[in-house]
Amino acid sequence: MSGEIKHEWPLFEVFVRAKRGLNHVHVGSLRAADHEMALHHARDLYTRRNEGVSIWVVKSDDVVASGPDDKDAFFGPSGDKAYRHPTYYAIPDSVPHI
Amino acid sequence: MSEQVFEATIAKDQRIEPRDWMPEGYRKTMIRQIAQHAHSEIIGMQPEGAWITRAPSLRRKAILLAKVQDEAGHGLYLYSAAETLGADRGDLTRRLIEGRQKYSSIFNYPTLTFADVGVIGWLVDGAAICNQVPLCRSSFGPYARAMIRICKEESFHQRQGYELLMTMMRGTPAQREMVQDAVNRWWWPSLMMFGPPDAESPNTAQSMAWKIKRHTNDELRQRFVDMSVPQAGALGVTLPDGDLRWNAEREHYDFGEIDWSELKRVISGDGPMNRERIAHRRRADEQGAWVREAAAAHAAKRQGVPA
Amino acid sequence: MSFDDAYQALTDHDDDARWAYGTGFADPLAGVPTTLPEGVDGADLAAYCLMIADDALILSHRLQQWVTRAPELEDEMAIANIALDLLGQARLLLTRAGEAEGAGRDEDDLAYLREAADFRHVRLAEVRDDDFGHLIARLLVFATWRLALLDRLSASRDPVLSAIAAKGVKEVTYHREYAAGWTVRLGDGTPLSRQRMQAGLDAVWPLIDELFEPHPIEQRLTGVAVDPASLRPEFDAVLAQVLAAATLDAPAPGSATRDAPASGSATRDAPVSGTATHEEAALGKTPGRDGRHGGELAEILSEMQGLARATPGGVW
């Protein structure tokens, strides 16, 4: 896109915890001049239907992300660790509560 | 990551995410489509927004205000999806108010009576839902997710419109006339919302291949007609099309020829309200500039950075 | 043509947590008895409910006029939220006024069929916003005052007023924060924003005293209504704190009139609510509460009531 016109405010990523006991979930982004305004905007934009008990905002520039090219190096090694998953272990159906 | 991975991801019906490699044409098409959709939400606030202060009951006022507010929210979700592709909202807004990017032609028609609020909910939002539901499976992840959120929230938009019309149809003869008049004016423009016929829709094939689009314009239009006819019957209004009749062989309703020259005229900027809509958006953007600049200056001061 | 599974997914609410999408809505008056409390005059209670209902209804109208005109889309959301909150308060209070009156009038009868002289809001609610700075100044003053009011009203002897106020406290707390945040940003932003924020404050300042002037009805409703004079210390303290953070000065008493706007902006309207001192005296100390309003209310009502009145027997 043309680099000429930029919005006056930076971009923030918004995370909402829908209810106690759940993780914060990324719900989208918004523009704000500062963190305080970003929180307010997030409240108006992403929680106007009673969603959420807690909001995080993070400047998009501050998010460090793995690239898709890192996929194998980052996530490949755990792919063979089937013993981390409960289904790896054969337990007879007759054994209850496990 | 490269073209093969991209193609394979699409073939497996999985989502493309912003940092994935993607063909330049895909990126451009996505930005254009999402921006156009975002612009439509924002411009679409105007025709209904004009009735908030005039709504004839406090309940309708609250519903309409919440609905128009939702549209601002939906515009924001969509701009934020476009921004994941490297677009900048400031730049997209500039393109809108300079007429370099389009928005849905439907919003270039005026809202003449309060019945228009109901008909927009019923027909315009109804058509939008037909268009949008398949987009929840768009191949571009952020767009698909924004659309799911939007569709969930919009589920009340169509219902409130239809409920308003049902209520008005139980009212005075003047109110019933108002509803029929609004239906007459909005029916054909609603059919045009699905875009030109497939034979004249140059981008459809590529968009279908990339799974940006899931159904052709004509398929969606037919679906909308089939849905709307019984709804019109239940409401007690007539759809203004003498050729509208059930075709038992096709198992669809046949309908009359759409005046495509009108659509072309409206898209090219010559609809009844094009100039007003853009001028209004431009004015809000320009008159807000000093406010946005002030907030940026204040934030810079607090961080110790000279403004 | 088969349709996508997505349509199914939309009606499947099991995965709502994934979308942080909420559904639980509560009726603020659920289980609250609506009978009038012992020893309370119905006409007085009705008149009092109208006062604080009209404050909310008329300011909400002014905020509705900002829709599609806000400086940024995020503020579009915020302003609409505030307008919706105030509209919701107005509806509950109008309904309560109708109940207390006992003449069978509902919220719409009261909103749409009263004449200007029967509206009871303070003048601060009705004046036109010249620009965003003016809107913020007015909202800051209004929300600071109303928050203090609702906070005390939540202990009212009338259970309905108490429940409405308790709900409103949460809402107006946010309104005040929003306005305070913008007052600071505009006051301590650019030279232009500072000038416009100051002009906004200057414009609303002469309307402040009216907010704290007790009305005979409020005085009669002991334990039910709030004595507005008691709200002043909290109001002054909050305003002083916000203005200090915004590096702005409170206009000196009597120094600010709208005849000398600080901003040279061509978009400003002619002064409307700034009145000369002798006219001010003729209005009395509680002009709004007594139904004495400016021409601006006539404009608001013709817009708000026009369609409803033009369709006799209409149902919406």
Q: What's the Cα radius of gyration of chain A?
A: 21 Å
Q: What's the CATH architecture of chain C?
A: Up-down Bundle
CATH top-level class of chain C = Mainly Alpha
Indicate the low-confidence ranges of chain A by residue numbers: none
What is the oligomeric state here? heterotrimer
Please name the CATH topology of chain A: Ubiquitin-like (UB roll)
Q: Work out the radius of gyration of chain C.
A: 21 Å
InterPro entries (chain A): PaaB, PaaB_sf
Protein name (chain A): 1,2-phenylacetyl-CoA epoxidase subunit B
Pfam families (chain A): PaaB (PF06243)
Helices and strands in order:
The complex is a heterotrimer of chains A (98), B (307) and C (316).
Chain A: E1 11-17, E2 24-31, H1 35-46, E3 54-59, H2 71-75
Chain B: H1 3-11, H2 24-43, H3 45-49, H4 58-83, H5 89-97, H6 115-132, H7 141-169, H8 173-192, H9 204-209, H10 217-235, E1 245-247, E2 252-254, H11 260-270, H12 274-302
Antiparallel strand pairs in B: 1-2
Helix pairs in contact in B: 2-4, 4-7, 6-7, 6-8, 6-10
Chain C: H1 6-11, H2 16-19, H3 42-64, H4 73-101, H5 107-112, H6 132-153, H7 159-187, H8 191-204, H9 216-220, H10 232-245, H11 277-283, H12 295-310
Helix pairs in contact in C: 3-4, 4-7, 6-7, 6-8, 6-10, 7-8
Describe this entry's structure for a reader.
Chain A: It holds the Pfam family PaaB. Chain A: It comes from Paractinoplanes hotanensis. The complex is a heterotrimer of chains A (98), B (307) and C (316). Chain A has 98 residues and is an alpha+beta fold. Chain A has one domain (2-86): Ubiquitin-like (UB roll) (Roll), CATH 3.10.20.520. Chain A contains 2 helices and 3 strands. Chain A has helices at 35-46, 71-75; strands at residues 11-17, 24-31, 54-59. In chain A, a hairpin with a 6-residue loop joins strand 1 (11-17) and strand 2. Chain B has 12 helices and 2 strands. The two termini of chain B are 41 Å apart. In chain B, strands 1-2 form a two-stranded antiparallel ribbon. Chain B has 307 residues and is mostly helical. The two termini of chain C are 37 Å apart. The chains are: A alpha+beta (98), B mainly alpha (307), C mainly alpha (316). Chains in contact: A-B, A-C, B-C.
